[in-house]
Design goal:
about 70 residues, alpha+beta, two-stranded antiparallel ribbon, about 10% strand
Length: about 70
């Protein structure tokens, strides 16, 4: 998985990075100040995930999304 930022110009997304042709992408659009609130359990899960990423231990996106859906 790669992360790229960009902006919408004339209804199209212009990225600040190159992605391979045919790449599947997911777009998250920030609203307002871009903040959110998380309960203690979610915050702990996010902090643990950040620590794992810092140690180059990653989780496949499908597994992460599945885990988040279970917590809803």
């Amino acid at each position: 998985m790669r992360i790229a930022s960009g902006k919408v110009v004339d209804g199209r997304i212009e990225l600040d990075a190159e992605l391979p042709e045919g790449a599947t992408v997911t777009v998250l659009a920030l609203e307002g100040d871009g903040t959110f609130e998380a309960d203690a359990e979610t915050e702990n899960m996010l902090l643990e995930a950040i620590a794992q990423a810092d140690q180059r231990q990653t989780t496949p996106m499908a597994d992460l999304l599945s885990e988040l859906r279970k917590r809803e």
